[in-house]
Specification:
291 residues; 2 domains
Length: 291
Amino acid sequence: MKTTKILCIVLVACTLMSCQTRRNNIELTDFTRELISLYVNHPDNHSFAKNRNKKITIVSFTDTSHYCLSIFFDSNDNVFYTEDFVGQTSYLGFLVRVFGDYNSVFYSVKDKVKTQRRCERILINDSPNVWRICFHRDTSFCRMRTRKEIGNEDISAIEDLVKRHFRAFDTLHPMHENEIFSWDMVDTPAEFLFGDDSLTHFIISNFELKRRAIYPQHGIATIIDILVDKDGKATVTGIRKSSNDVEFDNEALRVAEAVSQHEFIPATHRGHRVNNSLSISFFWQWALLPN
């Protein structure tokens, strides 16, 4: 028993050490420091700031088209994000932990972690206010991908900050002309022209497979993806989740194709119409009508 306790203590210590490095091995840029100040003092975050244990997490990542940074208060509730630990620093009384890229436009690394390991977890609240700020590779501001989990519609304060440090981009960037946005990435998702109630009624009325109920306790049986373009034209793009019943899936596809023949109200984001990916869910309960 004593040996087991010692082993557990050693394992915990190793886990903690894997996420630690020297303090202040990260040098934040002026932009990032001002962003942290804006984030901490923003009215949306007052309730978060009061209850946090003086930790802020920054996650930086780069893809072929963007530089992005996510910022949020770090607490001790639930697993949210796992990423490579780069280092930490202190700012405005907060311990700022940085994860992601060693080379970033948002900070510089003075001393690299000798052995970069993966942390077990980064912990934050169930409903965090994550801010995600993105730039194109030419460092012009990407308004379309910059968002706040709370108060997502208003990013004007972030835009004002960006204008002081980077190239602002006020019009729709060419790369977004044909980009497909998921429903949770846009200000206003695409919508069936006659409303959700009419869509549900249309599906129920047109679903012809009414003779069996397989695992009704599972709720959703089949999920079909559709693409609604900037003109409101819908196209079925495939099955996201199968019911594992070929006949039911085929009927769901047939009805989804019928739905796509109707007009949709296009999605809008940052004042522009955009292509939007939506899903239609088919419940087994809809198949429980009498023959």
